[in-house]
Amino acid sequence: MNEKEQLSELIGGIYDAALNPDLWDDVLPQTSRFLNSATATLGSFDFQHHRVNLSKTWGYDPEYLELLMSRYIKNNPMEFAAALKKTGDVYTIGDLMPYSEFYASQMYLEWGKPQGYIDAIQATLERTPTAYAALHCMRHESNGMVDNRIRQGVGLIWPHFRRAVLIGKVIDLHKVEAATLADTLDGLSAAMFLVDGKSRIVHANKPGLRMLHERRIVRSDDGRFSTTDPTADQSLREIMAIADGGDSAVGTRGITILLGTADADHYVAHVLPLTS
To answer: Which residues are CB-neighbours of 146 under 8 A, at least 6 positions away?
Structure first.
């Protein structure tokens, strides 16, 4: 596979991983091969909510990775200089401090040198007062120092990593919002059903699910909502069709329908367009 094919496959994998974070475990080895690096790390952090959005590593010895996280993640000689970098900056160890100083540091002598690491390249994917994300790759003696080709390679892929990280954050936010909505609906004592214009059930809260299971008042056949009262069911379908068409006749206050049952109990259904 030539370099263009490698790049195309890698970019496709990056966007697949944006939708399925488990795929980062495949993308990072691809990234390492494309950049001829010994490791690849992708991290995204939310300072405002004290949350790690994403943390994926590849190529590290587990014991040395633990040493890095426990001792040097907050005691890194390059930390201050790296903190000044902006979104889109691509830089090496030599861009942050003289190599001679890095090679004399305790971090290098205890952590980098025993593993044969001699250089690293990093791209800042996001840098705001509340969030930070970066792509980081270590270079082994067998890989050589970072050169212009590697810089150009990181320059080609970092925008795609950035978009993928941002897409992932939006998806996670929507999952949280959806879960919050579901929890709110489940907390209601009244049964509630979210349906589309064709009566397909999108969501039912817990009381609603109990009613569907009993099939005494309402039911679900092939995922479509209906009532056991034929007259009320016909009215309900007509109202749903009107609401789905955007007709203002339903109004923001909705329409109330009386539901009867075979044992003479009566219930009230309140139909309200979700857009209102």
So the answer is: 92, 94, 119, 120, 121, 139
Q: Is the separation of the CB atoms in 237 and 230 below 8 Å?
A: no
**Total domains, the chain:** 2
Nearest to 34 by CA among 161, 159, 154: 154
Distance CA 145, CA 119 (A): 6
Which pLDDT band holds residue 75 (cuts at 50, 70, 90)? confident
Residue 112: pLDDT over 60: yes
Model-level pTM? 0.64
Residue 276 resides in a domain: no
Residue 219: which domain range? 188-271
pLDDT tier at 109, thresholds 50, 70, 90: very high
